[in-house]
């Protein structure tokens, strides 16, 4: 099915919806802000499948890690429809309700000029064996690039069954030893910057802006800044910390919390654990004013310290950076 410029994989959704026994099921639709424009189309589709009562979550949604539990507790839907991501693969806690994950794919064919530019850049780097990776939404564009490069004689590797997430680059790690380099197909800086933490041999293609670019300079700058923060902390007395636990199913990580506990014990730092659904600047300021810690560790989304709070007036660390603080800083550790 097509909604706007996206292809929606609806088969699982139809299956789930049809299997609900309630005569008029209540459905909560949830999508990231960039995909909320599909709500009208998707809501209309649901009503064609069967008689349903549809609610549209206007809250932010940053991933399949982020199912809106407060809305679920009030609405008690028969089904939550999460749009745009596959089930969060790193979840330690399952959401306490029925969720169907509906993939949508940005339907774009890269322009010939972009394909030629990519091919030229691969040639200039003497890359013949190339891995093409992407988040789920950009998979179609990535497949089209892979097909083109394959037709031009490149050896292509892919991992379509393991889409990139901001905190999950296992496909990059798995393919790194068998390729000369990577093409990451994704919009904006977010995923490209994360991938560049794992490999220096990376080109990024943004299918929304038709732009090919090399994220390694940005990534090196980011890593230098993060390492500097850890080194500075190592050289000062540390007494008190705050550990932030996520209050979304995918962002609540008991195993990471227990790793953090051991690391804190190792350096003799006392700490408190706070919970929060969305960690924003005002929440962080409140937490800082409440507990006056020497530093803060975020165990919910590991991209928050890097992307949102890099400039906070106090060090805000990922669990990986806490490990560097305790064990040494030779190699940058991301995410935990
Ligand atoms: S990077 Fe953050 S928001 Fe994205 S999937 Fe991971 S935990 Fe969720």
From TrEMBL:
GO terms for biological process: protein histidyl modification to diphthamide. The keyword Methyltransferase does not apply. Pathway: Protein modification; peptidyl-diphthamide biosynthesis. The keyword Glycoprotein does not apply. One of its GO terms (molecular function) is metal ion binding. Keywords: 4Fe-4S, Iron, Iron-sulfur, Metal-binding, S-adenosyl-L-methionine, Transferase. Its cofactor is [4Fe-4S] cluster. It catalyses: L-histidyl-[translation elongation factor 2] + S-adenosyl-L-methionine = 2-[(3S)-amino-3-carboxypropyl]-L-histidyl-[translation elongation factor 2] + S-methyl-5'-thioadenosine + H(+). Its EC number is 2.5.1.108. It comes from the Archaea. Pfam families: Diphthamide_syn. Belongs to the DPH1/DPH2 family. Catalyzes the first step of diphthamide biosynthesis, i.e. the transfer of the 3-amino-3-carboxypropyl group from S-adenosyl-L-methionine (SAM) to the C2 position of the imidazole ring of the target histidine residue in translation elongation factor 2 (EF-2). This is 2-(3-amino-3-carboxypropyl)histidine synthase. It comes from Thermogladius calderae (strain DSM 22663 / VKM B-2946 / 1633). The lineage of its organism: Archaea, Thermoproteota, Thermoprotei, Desulfurococcales, Desulfurococcaceae.
């Amino acid at each position: 099915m097509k909604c706007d410029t996206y292809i929606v994989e609806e088969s699982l959704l139809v299956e789930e919806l049809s299997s609900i026994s309630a005569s008029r099921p209540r459905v909560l639709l949830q999508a990231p802000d960039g995909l909320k424009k599909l709500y009208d189309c998707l809501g209309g589709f649901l009503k064609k499948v069967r008689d349903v009562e549809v609610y549209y979550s206007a809250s932010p949604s940053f991933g399949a890690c982020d199912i809106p539990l407060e809305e679920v507790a009030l609405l008690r839907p028969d089904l939550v429809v999460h749009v745009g991501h596959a089930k969060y693969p790193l979840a330690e806690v399952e959401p306490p309700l029925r969720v169907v994950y509906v993939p949508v794919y940005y339907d774009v064919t890269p322009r010939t000029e972009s394909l030629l530019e990519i091919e030229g850049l691969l040639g200039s780097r003497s890359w013949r064996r190339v891995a093409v990776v992407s988040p789920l939404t950009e998979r179609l564009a990535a497949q089209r690039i892979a097909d083109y490069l394959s037709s031009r004689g490149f050896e292509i590797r892919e991992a379509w069954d393991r889409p990139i997430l901001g905190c999950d680059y296992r496909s990059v790690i798995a393919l790194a030893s068998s390729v000369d380099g990577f093409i990451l197909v994704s919009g904006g800086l977010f995923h490209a910057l994360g991938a560049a933490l794992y490999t220096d041999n990376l080109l990024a293609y943004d299918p929304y802006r038709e732009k090919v670019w090399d994220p390694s300079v940005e990534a090196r700058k980011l890593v230098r800044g993060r390492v500097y923060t850890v080194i500075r902390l190592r050289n000062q007395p540390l007494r008190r910390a705050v550990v932030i636990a996520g209050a979304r199913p995918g962002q609540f990580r008991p195993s990471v919390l227990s790793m953090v506990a051991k690391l804190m014990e190792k350096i003799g730092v006392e700490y408190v654990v706070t919970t929060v659904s969305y960690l924003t600047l005002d929440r962080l300021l409140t937490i800082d004013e409440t507990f006056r810690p020497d530093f803060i560790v975020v165990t919910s989304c590991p991209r928050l310290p890097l992307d949102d709070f890099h400039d906070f007036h106090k060090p805000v660390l990922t669990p990986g950076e806490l490990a560097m603080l305790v064990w040494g800083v030779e190699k940058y550790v991301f995410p935990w």
